[in-house]
Amino acid sequence: MSAFGDAQGAQSVELTLTEAASLLSGADMASTKALTEHGIPSVRMTDGSNGLAMNLPDFSGKVPATCFPTSSALAATWDPALVSRVAAAIAREAAAAGAQVLLSPGMNLKRSPLGGRNFEYYSEDPLLTAELAVGFVKGVQGRASVPVSSTTSPTTRRPTGCA
């Protein structure tokens, strides 16, 4: 058995090992599995480092969204306030599309120009990356979507993009 709850005093729920393990895989490519018998809803997620990257329910395309400058382009401004405004706009679009979790910002440090996903990350400089990531999170806070920082390897292949 394992407990499920949050730090804000929500009621704990006892799950069997099978139920708890089922939460580690998704209901689909963008949503967690719901355990309705325990009052645990499905959570919808989306990538969003440079705009909402959410598939349509039938996977026939992407939800229409604004394509913002990439994280590396925003980093070139050295402006956390600008990153915060962009993040707030992305959060509004994510909430309007029904996402509860925004899988962003990407905070991996660029270690090689050969990394194919470098555009998703801010910089090779840890201080600049930290300052801009804080700006992004502050821009999303107070919105319906919750940011989840991404620290995947820049060579990891994961779906991204914008419509």
Automatic annotation (TrEMBL):
In terms of Pfam families, this protein maps to: Glyco_hydro_3 (PF00933)
The organism encoding this protein is Agromyces marinus
Sorted alphabetically, the keyword list is: Hydrolase
Report the superkingdom from the record: Bacteria
Residue ranges of every copy of the Glycoside hydrolase family 3 N-terminal domain listed in the record: 33-147
Signal peptide (residue range): none
Name of the protein described by the UniProt record: Glycoside hydrolase family 3 N-terminal domain-containing protein
The family classification in the record reads: Belongs to the glycosyl hydrolase 3 family.
